[in-house]
Request: fold
Amino acid sequence: MEDKEERIETPLVAIVIDATPAKKFASQAIIDNGSTMMNRIFDALIGFGNAHLMQGSHNKLAVIACNSKSTKFLYPSENGDSKSYHNRPGQYDMFAKVDSDIRHGLSELILKDSIDHDSTTSDSLLGGAMARALCHIHKIQRELSLSHQLKPRILVVSGSSDSALQYMTFMNVFFTAQKENVVIDCCMMDSDSGLLQQGCDITGGQYLRIPTVVGLLEYLLWVFLPGPSCRSKIVLPPPTKVDYRAACFCHHKLVDIGWVCSVCLSIFCKFSIICTTCNTEFKLNRPAIVPSKPKKRPRME
Amino acid sequence: MSVQQRTLDCKDLHSYLKTLPAAVLDRLYNHPATCLAVFRELPELSRIYIMRILFVDQAVPKAIMGSWVSPNSARELEDIVKLLTELRVWQEVEMQGGLKGWLLNPTFRRNLKGALLGGGNEWSMKPNTDADPKARGIAVLDEYAMGRWECVLHFMVGSHQHEAISSDALQILQHAGLMKKEPGDNQLSITKDGFQFLLMDTSAQVWYFLLQYLDTANSRNLDLIDCLGFLFQLSFSTLGQDYSTDSMNDGLQKFLQHLREFGLVYQRKRKDGRFYPTRLALDIAAGPKKSMLNSLNASSQATGYIVVETNYRVYAYTDSSLQVALIALFCELIYRFPNLVVGIITRESVREALKRGITADQIVSFLRQHAHSECYKEPPVLPSTIADQIKLWAIERDRFLYKDGVLYNQFDSQADFEILRNYAQERGLLVWHTLNGRKMVVTKEGHDEVRKFWKRHSRNGSM
Amino acid sequence: MADEEETNEYRWESGYEKTWEAIKEDDDGLLESNVAEIVARAKRKRAALKATGAIQLGMMRHLFVVIDASECMFLQDLKPTRFLCVLKLLELFVHEFFDLNPISQLGILTTKVKRCVEVAALAGNQKKHIEALQQMKDTSCEGEPSLQNSLERAMNGLKNMPAHSSREVLVLFGSLTTCDPGDIQKTIKSLKENNIRVSIIGLAAEVRICREIAKRTGGTYNVLLDDHHLKELILNQVQPPAVAGSMEASLVKMGFPGGKTGSGDGASDSAADHAPAYCLCHIENETSCLMGNNSGYNCPQCGSRYCELPVECKQCGLTLVSAPHLARSYHHLFPIKPFIERTEVPEMTHCFACAKPFGELDPNVYECENCKQIVCLDCDLFIRETLHTCPGCASDPITAQMKTN
Reply:
């Protein structure tokens, strides 16, 4: 008899943009009718953000960009309300603001990066940007009135491959997302990322590597615009098989068989007598393999 | 005779649009704001479909569209196709090679795309270029909006402490059947529909009221399409931003004055050249369930104020006489303090409300909507025993089942009575019978058949 | 823990605490903001205490759970009965246990009619344990329990486990008596020699022998207050304990199945790819586990296929895990430094982490020592309790790399 008291769903998408491949795209030749690849990507990201906001009046958006030097909130913008945006004819006010915020912020970030001719090319700070996105989501969740229910997710748009140096950050981000029911989606351009694959798998998100950057907007709109609850209804690209191999702590390379410190669970690719993480000394005299169970079965052929 | 409850029919946006003629719909889509509003109200899957074909300029074959959903959602796709065709968002077209395909309404496509990326038709509402020297804060606007709206409601419940409302508003109230003039009485009095109206949440009230207003738009020499387009633009405007009236034609200016009266927009002076939309206006396109009013921060009045306990006591933290009057519709008030009213829900008080035409669902949803924010911390917001009991009290009134029938009595013998009764019973025509006094009631439809049988029987018996 | 309690004086002997004096009204005469601040402060304090815990934790655990199934477990002081209540909470415990201790092993024993029975052998598969717990719901509780028999049995199981693992027993004891065949002091002594830690949760009242066992073996002893407290007590056992003094450390060889092999990745492309797609975990059962060719995990050492991880390879004994299993526990090892509380708001107007402007309400901000970024109270708590990563450090090219080195 009792009917359910429904809470209003409030979808929130936090887009995390990896701007490191910008240099590569910026140098690329102009494609059709005068628009550069960079512009294409800008337009696609802004189009997606606005398309999400267009879905409903409660929808929320956050955009965070990162490169190898810093991370930055693009929307809501860090400088507060800038009234400087000019409205294009026919565009909805709010969308125009998103448009100009993202465009300004992103070009600022990329310009700063290209001026600064630092030869040390380090990895993109994607982990930090995702951590900030999670903090932002957590905050929104806390401030939301109790009659609303937040449906948060993070969309990572990246083009750089894995950075083993941030392994810990990534893993912490993934487990936090899982705990907070944040779905991590990932749209990769050009290269694959095993770590992000794991993240999408752990949180139940969608991982997709797109073959061409030209169709970015189309992929975003079809695969990533529908919320997780709606995804079962539509035909999506088949899930990719996730590589769950671990990276060793000593050389940051993927290993099939590794040595794990029993005290701190650090992974090493070679046997050593001391754990570099927790400084535990290992006994050499005992066999390092866990004694297998007495009941051994003959091998099936 | 039937005691079926008539509930107030508050159409949502789509069912309203479906009642409009096709030509009007097509013209309506000339405003980006309308397209946006229609789009937002669509079910999720259809929104995804539209997004996918938004940038495709030609028709898309049915077979391809069908392959986008997983097989077990095929039914849902059919519903969507029906809805979108009815709203004239897309049409079925014949493609080359005899394939059937769907084509997005070109005006709709252009304006939705425009709203998203720019480049469509202009919005007629523009932010003022120069800043208002006496700019109004959001709090002021909220207070103004609720004040104006409550003025209308106050008038309806008949508390006379407030100023009277204009003849236009009166007309609409009468047109909507919310109030009527009793014959021989000069005063307007509230109708059953009116009571139901009072218990709806504010955004639904505004929407219902506006629908009724738009019904009479033509008689006021207002262009329905302009008005609707303007309303939707209002609903997408920014709270606290002032807009210029310069580009508005006379009809819209007039419309604006009406909206001002109901608190949908704020204007300091008629000739001011600028106006502020209020939260009431922003809510229009959001639909009744997703109202922003419910999500206001604690500063506003619109947050919940009612606590219901399992012992049927109702505590309402309010000093508004309107809210007290609303609660008194279905509660017995016990105490009244400056900021608190305590009442108790009883069988009698609820029956009183039901007699007025208010439904149990309306009472329950009213209590739920205005539940105090503290109640949200421990769901259920409204104790389920209370919700159930109110519904049981409502069902209680439906204990009588009215059926037309024909009474047979004054049988000469017990045998005659039994024969006829058994005959009627076997054919399922018997409604009721009693041996005491030998009476039986047969359904109206069965009366002929039973009578014929009785005639045959008595003829045979007399032979 | 036991020692600490004994040295402390009783609550009524300690000084008179005027707890209400901490609560002050704010300008509007309201208590709310003040109370919220006190709560937040308390949380910070608790989190800070946790962060200073021992770094050396026993991550590989072998734990026997002993469930009392004697007559007294049918008492209804816990709803519906003690026994059912405990079983239900244990299901939750098993789930949480494997979530936090992915490469640990768990076994379940029951004790009734003066005997001890093994319900689930020491293993790392939570499904089997949960099944066993569910089946137990229909068994009857009878006779007296035997503490000594159960401990001996658990000890026999744990004795041969590798020295680098943490050996533990958790007893859920409802009875106030025990029926033992010999001298339990001897058992305690050998438990101690074998480095086995026994923790006991009493369901009725405090029993001296239980306290003594827990104290001597380095475990904890608690008696429940109500069912909520019981849940808390049981879930407290999920956290890995600090390393006991004499535990040996060693490097354990483990396999990380690479998922789909033959994806052009040379390293994992072995003959095992062409093996039939049967998994070894279901081969004993009648129901064969049908897998597609691209699901399942191959042991990198011998090529046997399994349908889920973690598992111990039945062929070569290699422990197979996936990288995230291990990573789940890493935040214990690399705790972040507590942020410093700062009162004056400098030129920063926004919280670095969540981009929310600082308001009047929270005068205090928190600064990370490494990256000097400022965050708000909410984020400070969130970062410490859940995220375990400073967004500021992770957003700085220099500090981001320091993290793992």
User: Anything to note?
Assistant: Strands of chain A lie at 8-18, 60-66, 71-75, 148-158, 183-189, 207-210, 246-247, 254-255, 257-261, 267-268.
